[in-house]
Amino acid sequence: MAERTLRGARLGGQSFEDERGIEFAARQQVGYRCPQQHEFEITMSVEADIPATWECPRCGSEALSTAGIEPEQKVEKPARTHWDMLLERRSEKELEDILKERLELLRGGEIGPAHLHRANAKRRPA
Known about the structure:
Blueprint: E1 27-33, E2 39-45, E3 53-55, E4 62-65, H1 82-89, H2 92-107, H3 114-123
Antiparallel strand pairs: 1-2, 1-4, 3-4
């Protein structure tokens, strides 16, 4: 095993490539400030879309760009209620007709809990 060991190369810890002839991408520094007044800069490509917010590396809160870039305001849709969804399928007139029909069936003992029908059967003369 000792004869197969590579000695003195620190594999993975050191690159044998040099930086001659390599042209690095253009970069820019983008500044941010969080609500705790922590200021920091992030290095980004010149071609990158700069985000309006970035997480503060010190406190984790949302920091805003010092370059004046405003975050997009999201349009919030109002919450759809059960009633709204019901009105998408039926008109109020249809709903009133269905309600009247179901109340007549319930009062006539044709639908509903069995214990209600037994109580009505005792009261009715045979």
